[in-house]
Predict the structure.
Amino acid sequence: MSDTNTTQGGHRRSRTIRGLETPSSWGERFQALKTVPPLLKMVYRAHRGFMVATLVFRLLRALAPVTMLWIGKLIIEAVELY
């Protein structure tokens, strides 16, 4: 697969997304996060159930790795005690 965007140090990622420039500094990236609350309000007004379900599933996905680590810890501790 050939990619024409490899001119800057072999970096394949394009500097533009659909014609818009991507934020280049951390300040610009954090400033772009200001658009998230209005987006969440718009989705909440459109369909509350979808918004709540999406947030619940995201929370469960975020907790899954931590839960697996905790269960692994319990297994290791049980084996050590045996």
